Amino acid sequence: MDRRRRAVESAAPAAVMVLLLLSIAPAGGARRDWGFRSPSSSVGFTEPNTKPDVKNNGQTFVFNYTLAKAIVEYASAVYMTDLTALYAWTCSRCNDLTRGFEVTCIIVDVQNCLQAFVGVDHKLNAIIVAIRGTQENSIQNWIKDMIWKQVKLNYPNVPNAKVHTGFYSSYNNTLLRPAITNAVRKARKLHGARDIIVTGHSMGGAIASFCALDLAIRFGSNNVHLMTFGQPRVGNAAFASYFAKYVPNTIRMTHERDIVPHLPPYFFFLPRLTYRHFPREVWEHEVDGNTTFQVCDGSGEDPNCCRSVFVLFWSASDHLTYMGVKIEADDWSTCRIVLGRSAEQLQMNLASNIVTSGRSVDVVIADYSVQVD
Ligand SMILES: *[C@@H]1O[C@H](CO)[C@@H](O)[C@H](O)[C@H]1NC(C)=O
Ligand SMILES: *[C@@H]1O[C@H](CO)[C@@H](O)[C@H](O)[C@H]1NC(C)=O
Ligand SMILES: *[C@@H]1O[C@H](CO)[C@@H](O)[C@H](O)[C@H]1NC(C)=O
Question: Where is the signal peptide (predicted)?
Fold first, then answer.
């Protein structure tokens, strides 16, 4: 477990500038309505004009389209491989609703092809954590060996909770856990105790779930919000109910016939033994050519949401677009390129770019960490 870790901090003046700017920005703010509202608002709503329908089906839960759109843009941006454009927030996906985002930390685990960033969205008044998973073709690998490979969690009061070994160790046994926790703690110190929004797509969504649980235990359930896109199941029923209790502000977006949320399988006739999703699913679904966002029931496995799609119609292409936003890597070969160039070189280049740019961004890169699955 010889893990080499390097952290580079940019010039102090940049940090001082940030501090000065922040002292005039409002701290704290109203609690984000994610959100579970009073039953009186159970009819749901449709935001005006061009916004798609939100079908609430009598749920006491309101889906905020604008907020979700901003978050999917973060989940898409974390796939970008040009780290310089990422920390400067000038990448081709770093615009629209996320304009003005301030990256405070970029985390890259070369060995496991994992990437994450932490930063502050001043418009949402929130700390954003976005996590990217490994390559899409590893989906086949998950299917191969994931079905019964579960491991116990070492959190208190969850004797029966089991989670997927590969997904969990991608968070727990790599650079991600210490680096993200540290970056969030630092951002809260610098920018005030704002809401924390954790997001990710696909396997990044699975990892984001564990991250959100971890942050909720550390910083309080009320302060942590999770929104994932097309994530696979990550644990058993005991885990799902534990999760629902600790991370109640969770939205698990699914899209039409996306295959990944159906994996690993859930067998309704073996409810205690198989994997099970936690709530709350919101299903992006075409109805007569109109995109609707169907708010699903609190069970995590609503039979009328994406589970209503017959197995033969499951699709890989619906996995790659959410809310009209393309959400896949711009270049999957980059993991190898980075390896070839050596992480040390990458780190040096980035560090000098960051110093030149006068920004205050931490870069944490591991070129050797524990190999997960
Ligand atoms: C949805 O979220 C946006 C961004 O946080 C916020 O400005 C807006 O007021 C929210 N809308 C509703 C109906 O809560
Ligand atoms: C999670 O990480 C901790 C601390 O590094 C370690 O003790 C524990 O065994 C890990 N859990 C799993 C399931 O790998
Ligand atoms: C689809 O949208 C059109 C135009 O807004 C509307 O007239 C129609 O009723 C919608 N269909 C459904 C099934 O909601």
Answer: 1-29
**CATH code of the domain in which 198 resides:** 3.40.50.1820
Residue 172 Cβ contacting ligand 2 at under 6 Å: yes
- How would DSSP label each residue in 196-211? EEEEEETHHHHHHHHH
Amino acid in position 35: G
Lookup result for tokens 């061009």? 50
CA distance 211 to 216: 8
Residues forming beta bridges with residue 283, ordered by sequence position? 254, 294
Judge whether 319 counts as a catalytic residue.
yes
Residue 79 lies in a domain: yes
Over its C-alpha atoms, the chain yields an Rg (Å, rounded) of: 20
Ligand 1 geometric centre to CA of 258 (Å) = 27
Q: Identify the DSSP state of 278.
A: P
**152 CA closest ligand 2 atom index:** 13
Reported pTM: 0.82
Residue 35's pLDDT is what?
40
Which residue in this structure is represented by tokens 């309505």?
A: 33
Name the residue range of residue 96's domain: 2-361
Going by their DSSP bridges, the two strands 250-255 and 195-201 should be labelled as: unpaired
In a domain, 369, yes or no: no
Residue 318 and residue 258 in contact, taking contact as beta carbons nearer than 8 Å: yes
pLDDT, one tens digit per residue, over 275-304 is: 899 999 999 998 888 899 999 999 999 999
